[in-house]
């Protein structure tokens, strides 16, 4: 499969801070690629360098076979960019907004309605942008990035601050964009989002890539215990620790959670005690991988 993005030895410093510290990765044509990391990990800086919005101190970047810096006019019609903070022209409707963006690339005005339909905003075509909800504004932002039919799309935390329903709706839009053959590079704080959408993810921290691969492969490589939960009070925590196969048990007053590497043995023992009401069994997730690599301390 052809390489759409190639990044090798990328570095960017701000004073004594290494915002990007030797990052290397590639993205294949048609791939949905995610970059994950806590605040200050270097995700956005990396993306801005690849997009040609920022100059690297060291390293090389190739996008669609071309260098993105200095700002490359041959690349601009071939990429679409949705930034963390989107700004729209004031007092324009959603349709007028898209027509204005499209005119910068010589796109016919009639393309605006097709794009509004594609992102589920056809009924909001005549609504001014300041009247759109957060989820609708994010979808319009993505439509602006797609109006000129780019081969490669960059999305920087596109579902930030959206409610769960709006997030899931936007996921459907992104899946459709990807299945149409576009390569997508996504940064996100949401592990479930990356696990659901991305073919591969790179987990960053302190400007470096710590792990890179398909989400399912990274999760299997963690070798984490399963967690079995039931309602608090169904089984005493001390008794739960004595169950065959149980490693640990903790009761927080709402749920009793048992950690185990042999869930079948634990569940069989719980069934013998008639303690399976409301049981939930959860394996490791990409969030567990993320926390194992980056730590659990809060970062503002």
From TrEMBL:
GO molecular function: ATP binding; ATP hydrolysis activity
Positions of the ABC transporter domain: 5-231
GO cellular component: plasma membrane
Record-level GO BP terms: response to antibiotic
Annotated PROSITE patterns: ABC_TRANSPORTER_1, ABC_TRANSPORTER_2
The UniProt record lists the keyword Transport: yes
Annotated protein name in UniProt: Nod factor export ATP-binding protein I
Species annotation: Actinomadura verrucosospora
